[in-house]
Amino acid sequence: MNAWNRITALSKIVALDGIRKHTLIGLVLLALLAETFGIFFIDFFGYDIGRVASDFFFSVMWLAGLLFLFFHAVQVIAWDEEQKIIFAILARPLSRTEYVIGTWLGLLILMLFLELLLGTIAWLSLLWIQSNVGEVYFLTLNGTGFIITLLGLLLTQTAVLSAIMLFSGLVRGGFPVLILSLAYYFICSGLPVVRESIQRQISMNNEGEGLAMILKALSFLFPDMNRMDYKGEVVNSLLSLDSSAIIFQIAFAIVYALLMIALACHAYSRRDIQ
Amino acid sequence: MIEFLSVHKQYEKQIGEKHAHVALRGISFELKQGQTLGMVGPNGAGKSTSIRLMMDFIRPTEGEIRILDKAPGDPAIRKQIGYLPETASFPKNLTCMEMATFAGITCGMNKKAIAEQSEKWLSRLGLWEHRNRLIRSFSKGMQQRMGFAMALLHDPELLILDEPMSGLDPLGRAEIVALTEGLRSEGKSILFCSHILTDVERLTDEVLILHKGKVCFHGGLEQIHQQTGETNLETAFLNVIEGQGR
Predict the structure, then answer these.
(1) Which of B158, B157, B122 lies closest to B142 in space, CA to CA?
(2) What does the alpha-carbon distance between residue B160 and residue B112 come to, in Å, rounded to a whole number?
(3) So what's the architecture of B2-9+22-244 in CATH?
(4) What total of structural domains would you count in chain A?
(5) Which pLDDT tens digit goes with each residue over A54-111?
(6) Which residues of chain B does A85 touch, with a Cβ-Cβ cutoff of 8 Å?
(7) Most CB atoms closer than 10 Å: which of A48, A140, A245, B102?
(8) Is residue A57 part of a domain?
(9) Where are the domains of chain B?
(10) Taking a contact as any Cβ pair under 8 Å apart, which residues of chain A between 49 and 108 contact chain B?
(11) Could you give the ipTM of this predicted complex?
(12) Is 0.95 topped by the overall pTM?
């Protein structure tokens, strides 16, 4: 209980410090502006307006989340060391593990706040667009599909955040963490394309099975970021998703994030703070 | 309270460096309960390294450290330690009160105790009227005084003060000297690290002189005066350092 109190106390100051940062306030305003722009943007489309609008809103949320992760989250632990704030924090009866978890939780709260704010506005905007354009152009708006899509987006970004915490525990300085995080993100995004091309090669001339196995194993380390992209479900009248597949993906994302955090705690506990 | 037994610390070799930097070369000393120890030495002597080892920010390469009869790695001991870093720095977008609440909660204090102790120490250090201002608007001296308040908030038994006068104007310095004297008379154990030797002479019972990672002298003020034949700490200190070869 005491450990939990210490973790939540730290997460509170991480979240408060972040929410008052001008750059984050700017990011929220920019994302809100982009969503507002989306309402005008759909005027350029004469068909399937619901799909276009929901894709646009979720793309804005995805991009805002990535900007938050790559321009704020990657810096937090590095800033603590560079500005010597870490000494004021770890002078308290707080273990290194509690420090990593508390910082992660604080960043998660900020990310949830950002995405839920944008998600609420996106949902209200979709309702407004639907009521204005009529059923011919926007037949279905599926609330469950919207929630599942939002959950998928949040879990994917949580996994990325956890990987960022691991890199922050392994190397010093914000820039190296940014480089590692970007490399990780690009590998995660590119691996499915490579796997697909190898699969095509196997089906054509039965070559490359060993490589395909290696790539499959790597995909557990570098998960496919699109695996939990359910955007299409927002405008489907009936969910086309298999519930067991969704549960598996959610469980995988949670276990992956927890594993990354456990490794981050281990790495950070071993290092000298200078 | 603090025990160092043959402690060595070698930092990891940095890119471009031929040899790894050795900061401490088997130092041993002890700070007993209720004692005030002044740790002095030229730049690079190993003072900050010793303090960071006590706070478990870094780990010794060899040797053993005991703080309050436990290993420094046990976070629970920091409930009884008040630490003031050389440059007190806090998250810039928090208020003084938010930081005090964080400090209190991590030490297991309840809301009432946090409110009382915050008012006591922030008032004493002239920060009470600024308690709801963001730290980013604080001067260096105000941040240093805030660091002192955070170190004292949970009424620790042991105080580790790394350059407590850093960034303070003469008034602030006098205030901190008076405060430290008060804490000393209350029987708190204090490890005090400073370049201002007049403060060390005024505030400490014993002096530990470090030079090039080794202990050059450890003893009472009278002892160093007798040993060097000097009447003040500054000249005695120079005498000891010159004796070791600069």
Answers:
(1) B122
(2) 26
(3) 3-Layer(aba) Sandwich (3.40)
(4) 1
(5) 889 999 999 999 999 999 999 988 888 888 899 999 999 999 999 999 999 999 999 9
(6) 89-91
(7) B102
(8) yes
(9) 2-9+22-244
(10) 83-88, 90-95, 98
(11) 0.90
(12) no
